[in-house]
Specification:
This protein is 78% helix and 5% strand. A hairpin with a 4-residue loop joins β1 and β2. α2 runs parallel beside α6, α7 packs antiparallel against α8 and α8 packs antiparallel against α10.
């Protein structure tokens, strides 16, 4: 898992360097891509590795306060990454499907707004974990990794709301938008006039290829991320089979390894 995380982090850094090297003045889209890659870099190289530290050092245990704080920070970054991916897909959908309106969206103020939206949503979702009561912290054997769990039914609803706003909504929206991009380009391909110059044909084929790549990248990320979420939050599998969490962490790292492909778009 650590080896996968190392190569993932290295690949993300190389993508960021490539973007900055090729574009001395990055566009608004490039800024969104770099923002997304930086979030994944923090999650993969720092937060995921902090989570696994108890595997290598079983005697290490986080205090209740530190466990809660780490849980909140982790979910803020992970959820903000999902929202950053959604906003990037919205940017590309408008550019491809509604090109005449893209100039209004492709402004610095719009870029700042799209970046802040995800962070504000996750901060709002995490506020109850800082100021509210009704939570308890436990160390899950055999790795002693900590978990923050609700003590009441009402707080369980807050857990579900955080999951919906930080995971379900942005991931589902991202997939829908990338599918719309792909379908839009396929429709143009099959409905075009017979006489199309080679340059336009090449542009259309490239857009279709990018649409396929983006859909595949997002589906890959979904396939690697959702199993852990479902097993932990709905099936409670890790309580009976704690060793499975190692496999899930490795699978999630593989998902992060594929996400830098968005830089190719």
């Amino acid at each position: 898992m650590t080896l996968i995380a190392f190569f993932t982090s290295l690949l993300i850094i190389l993508f960021i360097i490539a973007i900055l090297y090729r574009h001395t003045k990055p566009s608004e889209t490039h800024i969104q891509i770099i923002h997304l890659l930086l979030i994944y870099l923090v999650v993969t190289s720092i937060l995921d590795q902090t989570t696994s530290v108890t595997i290598y050092f079983p005697s290490v245990k986080l205090s209740s306060t530190n466990c809660r704080n780490f849980d909140v920070v982790y979910h803020i970054f992970a959820g903000s990454g999902h929202w950053a991916a959604f906003m990037l897909s919205l940017n590309r959908m408008i550019a491809v499907v509604f090109p005449h309106h893209y100039a209004r969206f492709n402004k610095r103020s719009a870029t700042v707004a799209t970046i802040l939206i995800g962070w504000l949503i996750l901060l709002a979702c995490s506020l109850p974990f800082f100021v509210g009561s009704g939570w308890y912290v436990t160390n899950v054997p055999p790795w002693n990794n900590c978990a923050v769990l609700p003590m009441t039914h009402g707080n369980g609803k807050i857990f579900q709301a955080r999951a919906i706003l930080s995971i379900h909504v942005p991931i589902s929206g991202t997939i829908v938008l990338y599918v719309l991009i792909l379908l839009s380009q396929l429709r143009k391909k099959f409905n075009r006039d017979g006489a199309v110059d080679r340059k336009m044909q090449a542009t259309l084929e490239r857009r279709i290829l990018i649409g396929k790549m983006l859909c595949a990248s997002q589906l890959w990320d979904l396939a690697c991320y959702l199993p852990q979420f479902v097993l932990a939050n709905y099936l409670n599998v890790f309580a009976k089979n704690p060793h499975l969490i190692l496999l899930m962490w490795a699978l999630e790292s593989c998902g992060d390894f594929g996400t830098p492909n968005i830089g190719l778009g």
